[in-house]
Design brief:
Elements (H helix, E strand, L loop, with lengths): L2 H23 L8 H17 L39 H14 L17 E3 L2 E2 L2 E2 L4 E3 L2
Antiparallel strand pairs: 1-4, 2-3
Length: about 140
């Protein structure tokens, strides 16, 4: 694929992904399955890996979530709540592991698989082993 073709495809993917994120996060509505949206995001990530010069700050690969529904209150977390990327192939897990290993050379890895729960994250606060009053939920 040539760079101009990639640029056009990236632009279309970003527009489509942002449309579906807006429907989900702001209007609480979906038009496509989570699997279909994950596939669009995966395709965008692959193109940006092939053409890193085309990565922009507004890309869905460079940010998490979108505008939240007004009924959700904002919470300041002591530590950032980070998202894991969707993985479709073993090689992607290996690349992720290698990237973490470079950042934290002493890291060791144990893997497990569980069913995907989309759009939910939780941060619990414990005080001396007791669940604190300040538990927080975040939906993405």
């Amino acid at each position: 694929m040539k760079e101009q073709e990639a640029r056009d495809r990236i632009r279309r993917l970003k527009r489509e992904i942002n449309h579906h994120r807006y429907l989900y996060h702001v209007l609480d509505r979906i038009e496509i399955s989570d699997d279909a949206l994950d596939s669009l995001k995966h395709g965008l990530r692959q193109l940006e890996e092939m053409f890193p010069r085309l990565i922009t700050a507004d890309s869905p690969t460079q940010r998490v979530g979108g505008v939240a529904l007004e009924k959700f209150s904002k919470v300041k977390h002591d530590r950032p709540m980070l998202s894991l990327d969707d993985v479709f192939e073993k090689e992607e897990v290996v690349k992720w592991r290698d990237r973490i290993q470079k950042l934290i050379p002493s890291a060791s890895f144990t893997y497990f698989v569980e069913q995907k729960i989309d759009g939910f994250a939780i941060s619990l606060m414990y005080d001396n082993g007791v669940l604190g009053v300040g538990y927080r939920l975040a939906f993405s």
